[in-house]
Amino acid sequence: MTARRARAVAHPNIALVKYWGNANSELRIPSNGSISLTLDGLETDTLVVFRADLANDEVLVDEQRTSASTEARVGRVLDHVRGMAGIEAFARVESRNSFPSGAGLASSASAFAALAAAATAAAGLALEPEELSRVARLGSGSACRSIWGGYVEWLAGSDHAGSYSLQIAPAEHWDLRDVVAVMSRQAKAVGSSEGHDRARSSPLQPPRVADAPRRLAICRRAILARDFEALAAVVEQDSDLMHEVMATSSPPLNYSLPSTTALRQAVPAWRAEGLPVAYTQDAGPNLHLLCLPEAVGVVIERVRTFDGVVDTLHARPGGPPRQIEIPNRG
Ligand code: DP6
To answer: Which of 2, 88, 150, 244 is deepest in the core (most CB within 10 A)?
Structure first.
């Protein structure tokens, strides 16, 4: 029997128009569509082996057993893949991150994109990216977008078939950079999944969702036209709207440290000086500074010396997940 094993590497992404709140949490059908940029440099590398001798799925992340909730999410993706491929064997999953997980760097996006790519390949399925994005979505919403390189849109849809991602433009289309101001390496107290559930308690969530098609259209156009000013305005507004929903949820959510707020306030002033830079913040204290290549040196310099910044990362537009050959042990 040929071994049912495959290995894949995938990248995280930074949302330019955010996913926050689910219409269906079980299937991770989001309340609104979103747009992201896949990031190079950072990655998750995942090996999946389906083995007839296993009594249950085994999941190792950075060589450690994971939480029951992560195991359940991995199991959900594996069950779906087993159903599609008509196989029953349990799987051993070994996953490694090249960056700290749980620190607001969206490791779940690269993790579940790599899992979807490796598990489907190990099960003998050759899926189109649209279909692969649906599989990844079942594990983590933002993973739906890491199935493509470059600039990606996740169409919210209203059921499993209708909720998938598409590429707006490949990585080569526009050399936008992401300088991440790392404010803390600690895992966040309230994870995104819990945050998505809380979104429905905010009176600001319905107007944020209702306005999403407008922001998506502006963002799509700005990407296609490589219009940094237009992108900066919509990206900062979209990030602020999400954090206002968080602040007005019951109980409220605040992912910012004082240094996050201070840097967020400094960036528009830098842009007014002529520096092409814009901020966006996910469900964590780190701030992502999107900028054009010519601004990277100055942005890194300013961020490094900013009070409260413990590290900086610099990412370029990245590609789609890729399979890694596994040497035959035979
Ligand atoms: C703020 O994809 O991490 O980064 O579906 O529960 O895994 P789950 O949530 P996740 O949420 C990401 C939220 C965000 C915005 C975004 O990436 O669009």
So the answer is: 150
Q: Domain of 240: which CATH number? A: 3.30.70.890
pLDDT on residue 102 = 47
Q: So what's the pLDDT on residue 36?
A: 98
Question: Rounded to whole angstroms, how far apart are CA atoms 177 and 235?
Answer: 14
- Ligand 1: list residues with CB < 6 Å: 15, 18-20, 28, 34, 106, 108, 140-142, 192-193, 196, 282-283
> Residue 133 has what DSSP assignment?
H
Helix, strand, coil percentages in the chain from 3-state DSSP, rounded to 5: 40, 25, 35
pLDDT tens string 120-155: 999 999 999 999 999 999 999 999 999 999 999 999
Nearest CA residue ID for atom 4, ligand 1: 282
> Is 162 found in the same domain as 138?
yes
Q: Are residues 114 and 185 in the same domain?
A: no
Same domain, 153 and 294: no
Domain termination site, one of 147, 171, 195: 171
Q: What is the pLDDT, as a whole number, of residue 215?
A: 99
- Considering the domain architecture, whether residues 96 and 231 belong to the same structural domain is answered as no
Q: Mind spelling out the 3-state secondary structure of 54-101?
A: CCCCEEEECCEECCHHHHHHHHHHHHHHHHHHCCCCEEEEEEEECCCC
Cβ–Cβ under 8 Å, residues 6 and 51:
no
pLDDT digits (tens, 9 = 90+) for 150-172: 999 999 999 999 999 999 999 99
The whole model's pTM is what? 0.96
* Alpha-carbon gap, residue 111 to 314, rounded angstroms: 20
What is d(CA 92, CA 35) in angstroms, rounded to the nearest whole number? 32
Kindly give the distance from the C-alpha atom of residue 20 to the centroid of ligand 1, in angstroms, as a whole number: 7
Residue 124 vs residues 54, 120, 162, 225, 315: alpha-carbon distances, Å: 19, 6, 24, 40, 33
